[in-house]
């Protein structure tokens, strides 16, 4: 939820490889398709530097970078859950000047092989058996459950962390179901996750706040954070422990 499109599609389109990509999608798992496309792009003479430059051209959603910086300044523990890959995500974050705002990046591993080519691996290398529309390589719901378990193990019954989850894709529906009543989910309106939520509202426990553009995202996100801060200040007559906020950005 930082750039205004899918980074995988953006790279493929910018290198003029859309036709091959569209032919492969019905025949392979998504992660395998992207790994194959990277091989083809490199075979066409493109380097890691070329891929990096294309990622830097990707259009960022207006207002998102200031929102991230503001949330970080207010003490939010920002984390990323992305079905892209580590090289794509880190390149975009570094170019946008916000990599240091995030404490954790959960995405498909990637590495540069001995021939200088980008290779992409699945985040989950096992059958996660998710009954919701998660791709085989990554169930974001499992990632959120791990975060929740880690918070519970660290703080026990005193755990009061609230999550704010932002997303727009089909794969963001499952993690939204893992959120608790005290949490918040911010789906992008008129995108796949918005449709799924509207069709299954009875399954969502978290408070739903839809948004359309970066300006609205920034306004809603900061309003939620400030509302949580006010509640905590009323409950604790001392400085607020801002580590009680976790904002999860899907990409």
Automatic annotation (TrEMBL):
Claim: Metal-binding is one of the keywords in the record: yes
Superkingdom of origin: Eukaryota
Cofactor: Mg(2+)
Keyword annotations from UniProtKB, A to Z: Hydrolase, Magnesium, Metal-binding
A Pfam family of this chain: Put_Phosphatase
Ligand binding (Mg(2+)): 168
GO MF annotation terms: metal ion binding; phosphatase activity
Stretches of the chain forming a coiled coil according to its record: none
PANTHER family hit by this protein: INORGANIC PYROPHOSPHATASE 1-LIKE, PHOSPHATASE, ORPHAN 1, 2
Name of this chain's protein: Inorganic pyrophosphatase 1
């Amino acid at each position: 939820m930082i750039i205004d499109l899918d980074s995988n599609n953006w790279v493929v389109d910018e290198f003029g490889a859309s036709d091959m990509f569209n032919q492969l999608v019905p025949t392979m798992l998504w992660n395998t398709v992207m790994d194959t496309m990277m091989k083809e792009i490199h075979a066409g003479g493109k380097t890691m530097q070329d891929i990096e430059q294309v990622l830097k051209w990707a259009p960022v959603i207006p207002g998102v970078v200031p929102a991230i910086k503001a949330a970080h300044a207010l003490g939010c523990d920002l984390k990323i859950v992305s079905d892209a890959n580590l090289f794509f995500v880190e390149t975009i974050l570094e170019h946008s000047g916000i990599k240091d705002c995030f404490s954790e990046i959960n995405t498909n591993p990637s590495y540069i092989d001995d021939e200088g080519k980008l290779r992409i691996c699945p985040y989950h290398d096992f059958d996660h058996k998710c009954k919701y529309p998660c791709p085989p390589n990554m169930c974001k719901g499992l990632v959120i459950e791990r975060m929740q378990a880690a918070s519970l193990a660290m703080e026990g019954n005193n755990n009061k962390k609230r999550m704010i989850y932002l997303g727009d894709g089909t794969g963001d529906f499952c993690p939204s179901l893992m959120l608790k009543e005290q949490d918040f989910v911010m789906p992008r309106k008129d995108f796949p996750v918005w449709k799924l939520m509207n069709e299954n509202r009875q399954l969502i426990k978290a408070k739903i706040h839809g948004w359309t553009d970066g300006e609205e995202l920034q306004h809603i996100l900061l309003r939620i954070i400030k509302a949580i801060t006010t509640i905590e200040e009323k409950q604790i007559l001392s400085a607020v422990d801002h580590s009680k906020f976790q904002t999860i950005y899907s990409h």
